[in-house]
Amino acid sequence: MDAVDEELDNVTRCPACNTRQGHEILKEKLLKNGQGVDYLLRCEGCGHVHKIIFRDAKPVTVRFTLSDGPESMPFEMEVDDDEIFALNDEFEALDGVWIITKIEGSSDEKRRTAGAREVKRVWASRIDLARIKRTFSDGDISFSDMIEVEPDKVFSCGTIVKHRGQTWRIRALHSGTGRTLSGKMVAKNIRRIFLHRPPSPEEIAEKRIIERGNWKGQNFPGREEHQQKWRGGRND
């Protein structure tokens, strides 16, 4: 008995005893146009003889919307008409791994599962790679780029980043629905990272002088003259 027959033996349910039983194949007949096989079987459990037809699956084209980070794209896949789609199922396409996030049936209703012939569109998100847009700002100058990272990589506000030989600091992380200026976020949830140039040592020193105030040495009118008189008095 070939592999197909052995598989039939293992999975066929007998309509008489209503149990899954091994079956002896008494006769088989190919249907016209190669559309399937007509089997005459005997149940090894109760001896009942019955027919069963195995039809060959037909190809069906299913439409997808694939979300890869901030980008979405249409995609079509040809599957067998007996294929079943379910939420959170994973599949490979376009050199990536995707997870089903939404299934729309033929009557526009949302479904948790649906057969290939019932599906109007399937939505899926990439899970093996995250693409994140970044915006760099330095005063009135800004530019953007995109990075590819592992989906679980963590980004934190305040982190120093090197880019094109320059130093930048992550100022904000945006998920598409909200922004944080002080927290953390995993790459798969980030839509855009905002980065600013950190202040130079000179700017930091100037800021400290201003924060100290006049009574601790901040520049004020006549300060230099006052210091010169003070130094002159010490030399006497």
Short description:
With 236 residues, the protein is mainly β. 14% of the residues lie in helices and 50% in strands. The strands form 5 sheets. Strands 4, 5, 7, 8, 9 and 11 form a 6-stranded mixed β-sheet that branches. Strands 12, 13, 15, 16, 17 and 19 form a 6-stranded mixed β-sheet that branches. It has a 3-stranded antiparallel β-sheet with strand order 1-2-3, with helices on one face.
What's the alpha carbon Rg, rounded to whole Å? 35 Å
* Cα end-to-end separation: 118 Å
What coarse outline follows from CA principal-axis ratios? rod-shaped
Count of domains: 3
Order of helices and strands: HEEEEEEEEEEEEEEEEEEEHH
Point out poorly predicted stretches.
1-9
Largest sheet: 6 strands, mixed
- The proportion of residues forming helix, as a percent range, comes to 10-25%
Number of helices: 3
Number of strands: 19
What is the oligomer described by this structure?
single chain
Task: Work out the strand percent.
Answer: over 45%
Instruction: Output the structural class.
Output: mainly beta
Q: What is the residue-averaged pLDDT?
A: 83
